[in-house]
Amino acid sequence: MEIKAGSVVISSAGHDKDRFMVVVGADGGKILVADGKERKLAFPKKKNIKHVRKTTYQIDMEGLTDKKLRRTLREMSAKAESTLQESE
Prior knowledge:
This protein is of the alpha+beta class. It is built from one helix and five strands, in the order βββββα. The chain has a single domain, classed as SH3 type barrels. Strands 4-3-2-1-5 form a five-stranded antiparallel β-sheet, covered by helices on one side.
């Protein structure tokens, strides 16, 4: 599974389970993720790549701020939730 900076992932383990996050970088077998609220872009969380699920979403990292990131991830989460409810 290739995950690069700007990819949106969903945490599948840990305190942040089921949260959308953006990949900020990579460090060995781990990735650095941020959500703009609990984990700011300046201080991303190191997460095992096995503990995330990749989505089809991609975010342009240029000029990205914590506020823009929060808004974007909130919109993606709402869209995914409405899609889930429609499929039920």
